[in-house]
Amino acid sequence: MTALLAFLPIAVVGVLLVGFRLPASRAMPVSYLVAAGLALFVWQVPGAKVAAATVKGLTVTVQLLYIIFGAILLLNTLKHSGALAVIRNGFTNISADRRVQVIIIAWLFGAFIEGAAGFGTPAAVTVPLMVGLGFPAMAAVVAGMIIQSTPVSFGAVGTPILVGVNKGLAGDESVQTAVADMGFGQWDGFLAFVGFKVALLHAIVGTLIPLLLVVFVTRFFGKNKSAREGLAVWPFALFASFALTVPYVLVAGFLGPEFPSLLGALIGLAIVVPVAKRGWLMPKGEPWDFPPRAEWEAGWMGGVEIDLKSSQAGGSAKVGAFAAWLPYLLVAALLVVSRLSALPFAAWLKAVELKWSGIFETAIDASLQPLYLPGTVFVVVSLIAVALHRMNGPAVRAAWGESLKTTAKASVALLFTVPMVQVFLNTDGGLAGYEKMPIALANGVAALAGEAYPLLAPVVGGFGAFVAGSNTISNMMFSLFQFEVGVRIGVDATWMVALQAVGGAAGNVICVHNVVAASAVVGLTGREGDVIRKTMLVFAYYALAAGVIGFGFLKLGLLGSGG
Question: Which of 144, 340, 350, 499 is least surrounded by Cβ atoms within 10 Å, i.e. has the fewest?
Fold first, then answer.
């Protein structure tokens, strides 16, 4: 019964967003009230703790809105300076085929940004870039969400493994004993071993992601609504997949969890772009394109208009190709430099912190590190672009004004989405004596599945990311649970943790506040349910395929837990 009740806030989101097609701005307040009501009256969590969790959620919301604003500001700055028109021409020179463009931008460039920054940043960068290149806003958001799967476990320089799995397991004595019994002399070696298993699962399941990406684009947004037009580029799509996933696995095996997505994507870009320029592995015929804009369905278009014909009005000089791309290169470079632990910049930026410890005399803390947020990188690079592209005052004011308006539209949904998540996560310690909602839900799934549970382990991780909005948080919540279930049913517990991490990554594809944020960047607020209805298919494939493959590895005893 507690598992069913814990599922209720998630079910409300699904029914209202996907079933009734309500915008998130209307669905999420209802979900928040359901979660808060359950916390107060069923779990009997003190009101002060529910209020503190809500405040923490609002703090996270401010951070998300800042990232959204920064991403939109960079887009609008480049639009008004004329740089976006130059970037579009550059991609057309690589290939005029939209199927190739979406693989290069979303799959490869998006994976690189994920490896550098994580936490929804790839969508904030790639989605507006695709819209600027002429993609329908809905197509760009769906593509930006689909790729937030394979690279996510090693996003933000390995944070979901090095922080999520690490903090989820490190404090438990039984885990420490079990890890020592496996032969791991050092904890870092254990994390690296789990990370390699995660990379292997992702590489197998993620092989089809670029192909699914183009199939979704042609099936839902093409003139002929044809999946066959997407399948026609299967040689190029699989080539682009292996160009990333092969180095990705090798890096995980030899260098550890920090760099698989980062280096895998860079190597993939270096391999795939020259092949795309030569038109190799592509079917003969005219390049595939979207129908004329006049024929687009109303639901495809967002509130961010990209008028490239008049885009030179805000710059006093013609923008060259290198100068046009330089802001995005700066974003990537600054994200990497500011997140490498070997360099001092991360510590310097994190030193500026606003923190509220023990909110309302509870154990819940909230903090904000404004200089470390990706939003600061976006804003700084936008200001650099103003000078670099010699923009005039009216163009700068237009970029800022449009960005503020678009961000404001996203605020209502996020003001309820993230507090709901925090209430859901902070339901332990209630007078009813129940375990907190995520654990109660996971216990219910495990009890139903029994020895077949490994098949569903990624689904549990995915639902953790769905509500928490983060693979890292999902791993913190469920890694210990997954490990203990593995011990209980007599299977290799390291594979169970790997399945958790893979499922948690896949959950980002359907995560509500990621969808809200990605939609807001291109002015598509209110259509979140339409996005999730499509990306849910990708999540189902990813989670179930990972479960089947992991279950097979367990039965065959492959890559056991010996250190």
Answer: 350
Rounded CA separation 132/86 (Å): 10
Amino acid, single-letter form, for residue 299: G
Specify the pLDDT at position 316. 54
**Centroid of chain to Cα 214:** 19
Residue 514 has, within 13 A of its CA and on its CB side, a CA count of 34
Q: Which uninterrupted H or E stretch holds 355? A: strand 354-356
Tally of CB atoms within 10 A around 183: 11
Give exposure, 288-305, as e/b (b: 16+ Cβ within 10 Å): bebeeeeebeeebbbebe
Q: Distance between CA 530 and CA 514 in Å, rounded?
A: 14
- Please give the Cα distance from 327 to 374 (Å, whole number): 14
- 298 alpha carbon, distance to own chain's centre: 26
Q: Report the alpha-carbon distance of residue 338 to residue 332 in Å, rounded.
A: 10
d(C-alpha 149, C-alpha 225), whole Å: 25
Cα separation of the two ends of the chain: 40
Maximum distance among all alpha carbons in the chain? 69
Please state the pTM of the whole predicted model: 0.82
| Backbone φ, ψ for residue 524 (5° rounding) | -105, 25
Which parts of the chain register pLDDT below 70? 119, 171, 304-317, 562-563
* Digit-coded pLDDT (tens) for 345-378: 989 999 999 999 999 999 999 999 999 888 899 8
**Residue from 36, 7, 11, 6 nearest 436 by CA:** 6
Model pLDDT for residues 232-286, shown as the tens digit of each residue? 999 999 999 999 999 999 999 998 898 899 899 999 999 999 999 999 999 888 9
Using alpha carbons, select from 69, 61, 70 the residue that is nearest to residue 407: 69
Cβ-count burial of 557 within 10 angstroms (0-12 exposed, 13-18 middle, 19+ buried)? exposed
How many H-runs (helices) and E-runs (strands) does the chain carry?
26, 2
